[in-house]
Amino acid sequence: MKLTLSVIKADIGGFVGHSSSHPEVMEKAGEMLDKAVEDDKLIDARVLACGDDLQLIMTHQKGVEAEEIHKLAWDVFMAGTDIAKKLKLYGAGQDILSDAFSGNVKGMGPGAAEMSFEERPSDPVIVFMADKTSPGAWNYNLYKIFADAFNTAGLVIDPHMHDGFIFEVLDLKTGKAVKLNTPEEIYTLLGLIGSPEHYVIRSVHRKDGLWAAEASTQKLSKIAGKYVGKDDPVLIVRGQAGLPAVGEILEAFSYPHIVPGWMRGSHNGPLMPVSFCDATPSRFDGPPRVTAAGFQLAEGKLVGPRDMFDDPSFDTARVKANQLAEDLRRHGPFQPARLPEGDMEYTTLPSILEKLEGRFE
Ligand code: F6R
Ligand code: MG
Ligand code: MG
């Protein structure tokens, strides 16, 4: 069956500070999505949280960017914001940049990753959710999963993957995208995606057209014109049977590479893979976290989630992340712990430095 998987997320209030989501908000979201399943608007749905971000994972047959589905997500975020306001959660309604829904949540604050595909005889899917970082954070992981044979043995061994993948890369400054073929163009690809604040991998397809991965790419600062919280991204990756195995997909997270985000969205920090219960960034509002929710799809039903990083084999990555976090913290306000000047443009720092203008002689 032809299916659409929509992951739509927003930070509508933190509990406590920006560290996690409140159970009452999650419960309300769950009730509303259950009702939508009863009413046949959705085939199935799950509500999860990563840090202060509420994650709506939904299956349906209405295609990507369907107004009905986006409106449903919007209504859930509005209802959740009401609860967040009542509980005086921190930053209630933070990612809701407009009062009126205009047909699509993109450009209005929430983030979305959606893909439509024919459900395979068995279709394992992993939804990655990150907090305290931004969309380009996945560049490293997606490259490892779909283009690095040191990570993904199937690129060498599996005839279905041997021809490689097509990466679609979005230029955040112009809004234009380019498709690059791997392995032929890996050096060009790396030339772009090594600058994740500028170039972001949006999707990955197998050369025969099979849609393998889709990431959210919304940048709140680009929408609001100033810093209004980070654009904590989500990513959908399908696995197995001619695609990277679930273990190859997860392997790409075994090293906690450094991503921008963390405190005030202004610092570099390691992306720590954690289980659902540890997705609560607290030290210096971090370090950045990533969780992985695994599902088997069964006629559009979401069999899961399985908490994929709830595994001692990721303990070393977590220890390493804490070591890197410690080293970066020792740098205090100095680069490379703090982001370079260009990336601080949308923060509150320029308004502080402005006051010095007249004192330069
Ligand atoms: C990062 C984040 C937090 C806040 C920080 C200051 O994405 O959300 O690190 O930036 O807690 O928050 P305010 O300025 O609201 O006190
Ligand atoms: Mg927040
Ligand atoms: Mg967040």
TrEMBL record:
Residues annotated as binding Mg(2+) 1: 11, 18, 52, 94
Positions that bind Mg(2+) 4: 231
Sequence positions that bind Mg(2+) 2: 52-53, 131, 232
Recorded superkingdom: Bacteria
Cofactor(s) this protein cannot do without: Mg(2+)
An annotated Gene Ontology molecular function: fructose 1,6-bisphosphate 1-phosphatase activity
Catalytic residues, chain numbering: 11, 227, 230
Binding site for beta-D-fructose 1,6-bisphosphate: 18, 90, 103-104, 132, 264, 285, 346
Catalytic activity: beta-D-fructose 1,6-bisphosphate = D-glyceraldehyde 3-phosphate + dihydroxyacetone phosphate; beta-D-fructose 1,6-bisphosphate + H2O = beta-D-fructose 6-phosphate + phosphate
Keyword ATP-binding: no
Keywords from the UniProt entry: Carbohydrate metabolism, Gluconeogenesis, Hydrolase, Lyase, Magnesium, Metal-binding, Schiff base
Catalytic activity, EC: 3.1.3.11, 4.1.2.13
GO BP term, example: gluconeogenesis
Residues annotated as binding dihydroxyacetone phosphate: 18, 132, 264, 285
Residues annotated as binding Mg(2+) 3: 230-232
InterPro entries per the UniProt record, alphabetical: FBPase_V, FBPase_V_sf
Assigned protein family: Belongs to the FBP aldolase/phosphatase family.
PANTHER family given in the database record: FRUCTOSE-1,6-BISPHOSPHATE ALDOLASE/PHOSPHATASE (PTHR38341), FRUCTOSE-1,6-BISPHOSPHATE ALDOLASE_PHOSPHATASE (PTHR38341:SF1)
The protein's role, per its UniProt record: Catalyzes two subsequent steps in gluconeogenesis: the aldol condensation of dihydroxyacetone phosphate (DHAP) and glyceraldehyde-3-phosphate (GA3P) to fructose-1,6-bisphosphate (FBP), and the dephosphorylation of FBP to fructose-6-phosphate (F6P).
Subunit structure: Homooctamer; dimer of tetramers.
Description of its domains: Consists of a single catalytic domain, but remodels its active-site architecture via a large structural change to exhibit dual activities.
UniProt protein name: Fructose-1,6-bisphosphate aldolase/phosphatase
Organism per entry: candidate division WOR-3 bacterium
Species lineage: Bacteria, Bacteria division WOR-3
Gene name as annotated: fbp
